[in-house]
Design a protein that fits this description.
The chain is mainly alpha-helical. It is built from 9 helices and 2 strands. The longest helix is centred in the N-terminal third of the chain and has 23 residues.
Amino acid sequence: MDTTTNPGNDKPTLMAPVRAALDRTRIADGLAPLAFRLYLAPVMWMAGSSKLAHFDSTVEWFGNADWGLGLPFPWLMAALAMATELGGAVLLLLGLGVRWISLPLMATMLVAAATVHWGNGWLAIAEPGGLFATERTMEAAERLSRAKAILMEHGDYEWLTEHGSLVILNNGIEFAVTYFILLLSLFFSGGGRFFSLDFWLWKHLNRQVRT
């Protein structure tokens, strides 16, 4: 059924103006992909830069089965992850090849979620309550309470927490999944209208094809 007209009647319904107003906002639909790109670009850049700055230890962590990831070909895997994140950050910022670079970045997030974060549950920061709380996060809350008591007794707790509360990192899959979902959206939407090089390149190519 057409939601903008009455059955058997060509007169528009009351929803027609609302739908028309919403349709007019599509001129700015490039803002959402732009926001996703600007959010993800520094995240990927910092992850890649950290691997580059500590490349030898990253390779060791990738390959060590006892305390690391135990991945095969650790030098190659570390180099690919680093290049994907650094290159991906630049391409996302420029809005160039967004759909293409989203694929290896999504793969990187899946590998990170499966090998690094999966065993820790969902939460990135340990919380004692809520839907995603686990025995692990509840125990972390007890440890955090003990740490706060020690700092209050033996340290300048107000200074230590002046710019933020103390927390315990749970390192769950929360952030990796969030980044994956944003990248998945970019894979289908592309870099977005007006604010990406992809848009202007395609516009130029289409103009040349017509002429």
